[in-house]
Amino acid sequence: MTVRPGPAVLPPSLRAWLGLIAGLAALVVVVLGVSYAGHDKPGTVDRWVIQPTADSVGPPWRRVALVLDFLGEPAGAVMLVAAAVTGWLLFRRPRAAVFVVAGVGAAVGTATLLKYLVGRTIHGDGNLSYPSGHTAFFTALALVVALLVTGRPGLGRTARTLLVLTAALLAGAAMGWAQVALSAHYPTDVLGGWCTALAVVPATAWLIDRAADRLVPRRTDAGRRARR
């Protein structure tokens, strides 16, 4: 029995570019985290963008913001991830399904850990705000799906890169706007959440591909021994 490797979740043509972007994003996360560690008020950049209040947006856009916010809550996030995992399993892409869970989980887990390390708050001591977990989740999910879709043959490196970055930018901008509009986060929080996803997802994809490619020869060797 010969086990064939599944398609890579991180297209080889994008590894160098996304590796560079991930490194720059990680640097932004660290710089912002150090700059706002322990703060409980908006910074200069935050006030330049918008003064966070409880009524930053009114109807009907407030409803749109609330819907986006729900998609980043546990119930909404689980529904989106479950739908994505089910879809890739139906297409017989188990590596892709693993990447959905691992990529999104790693981004959210990293954002949660950073919140406790940085200690920035909004509207009270119990509301840790940096980086935005909602923004990290939504950006990570969009980035994961975009990588899996653009990994199919027929697209050049430039087109793949633009599609992946556009998906991440649109998702991050949409959820980031909702979080700032609802006064749940400062603008620099959502930037940190966006960059967290950009830093973590490509690294997770590379690790999954490396682990899966190592596993295939072992299964092939096991199958050969079983036939003897």
Word description of this protein:
The chain is mostly helical. 72% of the residues lie in helices and 0% in strands. It has helices at 15-35, 44-49, 61-72, 74-90, 94-118, 133-150, 157-181, 187-227. Helix 1 packs across helix 8 (187-227). The N and C termini lie close together (11 Å). The model is unreliable at 219-224 (pLDDT under 50).
Into which percent range does the helicity of residues fall? over 70%
Q: State the order of secondary-structure elements, H for helix, E for strand.
A: HHHHHHHH
Overall pLDDT confidence: 88
User: Which shape, going by the Cα principal axes?
Assistant: globular
The largest sheet, given as strand count, sense and whether it forms a barrel, is:
none
The percent range for strand residues is under 5%
Task: Give the low-confidence spans.
Answer: 219-224
Provide the gyration radius in Å. 19 Å
Terminal CA distance reads: 11 Å
Structural class: mainly alpha
Summed up, the helix count is 8
Number of strands: 0
Describe the structure in brief.
With 228 residues, the protein is mainly α.
List the helices and strands and how they pair.
Blueprint: H1 15-35, H2 44-49, H3 61-72, H4 74-90, H5 94-118, H6 133-150, H7 157-181, H8 187-227
Helix pairs in contact: 1-8, 3-7, 4-5, 5-6, 5-8, 6-7, 6-8, 7-8
